[in-house]
Amino acid sequence: MSRLARFTAVPLLALVATLALIAPSASAQASRYEAEDAACEGTVDSNYAGFSGRGFCNTPNRVGARMEFTVHAETAGTLTLGVKYANGSTAARPADLSVNGALVRSAVAFEPIGAWSSWAVENLTVPVRAGANTVRLTAATAGGLANIDYLDTARAGDSALPPNLQWNSSGPLVFPKSDATHNIVSVKDPSVVYHNGRYHVFVSVVSANQGYSLAYLSFTDWSQAGSAPLRFLDTTAIGTGYKAAPQVFYFAPQQRWYLTYQIGDNVAYSTTANIADPASWSAPKPFYAGTPQIVLDNMGEGQWLDFWTICDSANCHMYSSDDNGNLYRAQTSLARFPNGFSEPVIAMHDPNHHWLFEGANVYRLAGENEYLLMVEAITAGGRIFRSWTSSNVSGPWTPLADTKENPFASRSNVTFDGTAWTNDISHGELIRGGVDQTLTVSPCDLRFLYQGKDPDVSAPYNLLPWRLGLLTQTNSPC
């Protein structure tokens, strides 16, 4: 989360197309239903890249064109849907959504996203009854439907986490520290693991000339964080130049530590066998040849930033943001990592770019078939985090605590040890229960290392005096 500019909003809304739930439960497995297996009025085409399965549904360009799915649900309730679609035209392709013959939502706008080979996902919820359900999309304009690739589904509700979270914050724990060649005004964007009895923290540091670079600190107890020296990684093979927003994890299949970070218009990684030796990190290697086209087409005046990698048993997923209301997800196989990442898809969108801004984190909840997504938002009262859950690391995502009135973390649900020192709960990371690529956290012991700042200080963003503090959940469900 280091920036240049951001603003404008890219259209993006989608909707549903298919479904079939087998044995759903409070933590039901997510399922994928390909559009070519639904009743597609039109053709199943494969002339644009990026689709799943055998192809995608391409309906005639007329009002009333439709596709229909039969959905089997074991029990009545609510399902979360994630519809992957493409619209390479210059106009929205709205559709009416009905379930069992009843209109659920009219004129859902499948907005243009730049190219027919670019794809986006819309997350939404629909009611279903026990047994068979008919889910239909009907084109509302002469353009017909957007191209529909697949529908992911998951049973909504019943998270292992409480629906209303409460936190207590420490005071500032980590401060800027300078040396003869680094005049540091801000320390921010932390990533942290606990390994061999020590916390290992990687951060962005910002100098008085607004230059970004990375730094490392380590300690055995949070009471020592303030006195731990900063080791500046621009003196290592990582090198000088813009580097920001690190994430660290141990990639067990290769028995290597990975540090990923922004490098201007791209994302790069370094590796080491010894996380405790900051001089051992390798030189940067970019994941992509440059900024993907879907990002260029949709970021407006924003910036591609805040990269986050998490892996399941088969694949690694990279989430990222653009400060323009878009959350992206790319994927590669566990065997090919760090190579082979796909073109990103838009995994979530909000027309209010401040409301789905940046700083995404995704974790697996220990002992649960559940993932947690957190995304930073900007409100008039300060920066906050919103949250969603899913039984699949790729979604679809069900809201958990995602409103101003009920956020994941904000000034409104945080108490402080002593005087409140910040109104912002900004870019950070949960303290994980392990170190590997699965990014597992305990739902019984949530702690969040975050950046905050003196609310009375006004300055350009890159000169704001960010410090690090620690949130501890006070209403554990365990």
UniProtKB/TrEMBL annotation:
It holds the Pfam family Glyco_hydro_62. Keywords: Glycosidase, Hydrolase, Secreted, Signal. The keyword Hydrolase applies. Residues 31-154 form the CBM6 domain. One of its GO terms (cellular component) is extracellular region. It is an enzyme of class 3 (hydrolase). It comes from the Bacteria. Its main location: secreted. Gene3D superfamilies: Galactose-binding domain-like, Glycosyl hydrolase domain, family 43. SUPFAM superfamilies: Arabinanase/levansucrase/invertase, Galactose-binding domain-like. It catalyses: Hydrolysis of terminal non-reducing alpha-L-arabinofuranoside residues in alpha-L-arabinosides. GO terms for molecular function: alpha-L-arabinofuranosidase activity; carbohydrate binding. It is found in: Secreted. GO terms for biological process: L-arabinose metabolic process. Residues 1-28 form the signal peptide. CDD domains: CBM35_pectate_lyase-like, GH62. This is non-reducing end alpha-L-arabinofuranosidase. It comes from Glycomyces luteolus.
